Sequence to fold (399 residues):
Amino acid sequence: MVATTVGRGLVLGAVALSLLAVPAQAAPQQARPRTAGLPAPDTAGLRGVLSSAVAKGAPGAMARIDDDGAVYQEVRGIADSDTLRAIDTADRFRVGSVTKSFTTVVLLQLVDEHRLSLDTPVNRYLPGLLPDDGITVRHVLGHRSGLHDYTDDMFAESVSGFEAVRDKVFTYRQLVGLSLQRPRTNAPGAAYAYSNTNFVVAGMLIEELTGHTVRTEYENRIFKPLKLEDTFYVHPDTGIPGRHTKGYLTPDTAGAALVDATRQTVSWAQSAGAVISSAHDLNTFYSALLGGRLIPAAQLAEMERWIPVDSTTAYGLGLRRRTLSCGVSVYGHTGAVQGYYTYAFASKDGRRSLTAVANTSNNADVLGTLAGTLESAFCGERASVRRGAAAARRSDEPL
Ligand code: REY
Fold:
């Protein structure tokens, strides 16, 4: 009875907020925890984190928390520097490497269908693709293949590197070829080394095993079943369909004007990073995944076999675990494509989820600051004093 009343109030509050889209007018939302074992989200803290992200150079920043039916939304700054439209939590954006969780879900569904085995060499499915028959599907999905990340060279210079590929259309084989021009970083399985090449190989596996494009498989296996109406894979189209925030790349030269990077093929990433979505849809996606509604428990357990990355993070298969200052662990992925930083994480049971976005990239201060949204969303008010230090510690974490 009480819970129903509180829930209705929160949802109405959220609708009013998104209609106003002017943070200064937002009525304070009363936070009550609905996910067992978690404190109430710290909405004032969340507002503060987003303000800091804007102060550090993001034109706009926004976050949405879904807590078992209750919705909290906060926005700061603008979506478009021409029109000065306020950023809105309904805006679509480029999710970058959050795509890797979508790609992994498709492959784990194929495992469940006995069409793929995690411990089989990639070369069994794609003969001659990789220079080492010891590289398995599991190594690829856990970033333990040792395949060099071709984006390191591609974006060594951020603006010219981006402009050189903004309109380019790559084949998967071309991207793997770029990686193979460089020495491998480790023997198969020997170490974690984050590399987009792994998820290009993953996309090739999807297309080889199903005979369909990754777009078709994402749509049929994830977007449509979960009714993700804001979620798209449009490669090689360059636009974001419908209402979206623009994305602004921060140049390497201090003080130089931000570059509108919204329009691009994202062909350099494809199955490693080209999905478009919204905060609502990413929260729905991770809630469904962690709640066991996308892949069977056995496959989710494979996704959650953790390899430590550093003192607070670990990587499974296409999924990251972060342990926050309050001891709570959250599960999801980060994303960085030109113009967009994303954090999309959920509680272990999927009942509380957070998506936070800043519409700039190549700005470590903004990335580190935005990590504080996780503290606000999952640690509650008592974490506020620790938040600054925790966020700063994580700002150089690989995506
Ligand atoms: C690509 C470069 C980073 C981003 C990347 N993104 O691997 C994947 C991810 C898809 O993790 C670019 N950085 C930026 C530079 C650095 O240009 N010189 O920050 O926009 O999401």
Remarks:
- The two ends are 43 Å apart (CA to CA).
- The pocket of REY is lined by residues 96-97, 151, 155, 158, 161, 196, 249, 269, 272-273, 335-338, 361-362, 399 (CB under 6 Å).
- Residues 1-27 have pLDDT under 50 and may be disordered.
